[in-house]
Predict the structure.
Amino acid sequence: MDATIVSKMQKHYPVLLKEIISVISPQHGGTFIDCTFGQGGYSKKILDFENTNVIALDRDKGSEKIANQLKQNFKDRFIFKNIKFSQLSNLKLKNENIRGIIFDLGYSYTQIKDPQKGLSFDASGRLNMQLGLNSFSAEDAINKLAEKELEKIFKFFGDEKEAKYIARNIIKERSKNIIDTKVLVKIIDKSKKRKNFKIHNATKVFQALRIFVNKEISELIFGLINAAKILKKGGVLGVVTFHSLEDKIVKYFFKSLSENKSISRYSPIVKQAETLFNLIQKKPITPSDKEVSENPPSRSAKFRYVIKKTDFYNFDTDIEEQFRNYMEIENYGDKL
Ligand SMILES: C[S@@+](CC[C@H](N)C(=O)[O-])C[C@H]1O[C@@H](n2cnc3c(N)ncnc32)[C@H](O)[C@@H]1O
């Protein structure tokens, strides 16, 4: 979600709901895993179809309130777990017919509006940014990491051109004061030579810190790997992303497991291994103009999906190698 325009919104909208429901087809029944329950927009819609069950996850304990309401209405058809989706493989599944696994990445309207979460640069007070089940906050990162480490976080997770100056000015300032949200925004303003008129000056650094604090890259990579393992043949794996790095990861994972690796054209004809996925649509599905006008943050949403072709449980993927440099940056947090 794009934090710059969130203030114009009044409530939470489930992004691309109609399109996602049409792709996962809950009218045929089965069990669906909603990996990012949030305000329950997708889960509720799926449960409206008879013969469906939903297992919903969210790392934010705050989601439990809405989950309890769904539990009252749908009883055994609905289960909620306060876990991170990288731990999908810890679900004790009893051969459920998993027809769809959906991720709607990022944070919800309720979370950005919660001053305790400290996700927004409009908020005042402590830098936090923990979505739930974290081991350190943005305040720890800003006040304890080395200059070079901060620079890399801003550069790689926020694509921030002035990463170096911002990191340098943070180090100078923190020797005098604890850096909170307002102070960080001031440092960013001071460090940026060129002002950006399209987005708030602090957007990229705040996005970078949120990704780092929540280990969003490793979460996504292990979430995808584990989802691909538990999905049944014919089931749909779908992901809504909100920024280019997330989309790059999802696109790579789907594409690399949908293609036969090229075999030398000089080698004898070899029966090619079956691929894990069917990639129906190469281009992502994006929101209609109507959805964007009703819910401006949806404008950066991209929905990609694949259909699992086999019941394979084990498969080779080099996704960890491909994105190892990003995961190494996330590991700076291990010492905090
Ligand atoms: C954009 S919201 C989802 C909104 C939801 N689709 C709806 O319709 O209400 C994203 C949610 O995913 C949760 N989340 C983010 N990363 C997660 C992770 N690694 N594991 C579990 N939940 C996560 C957030 O706490 C947030 O509630």
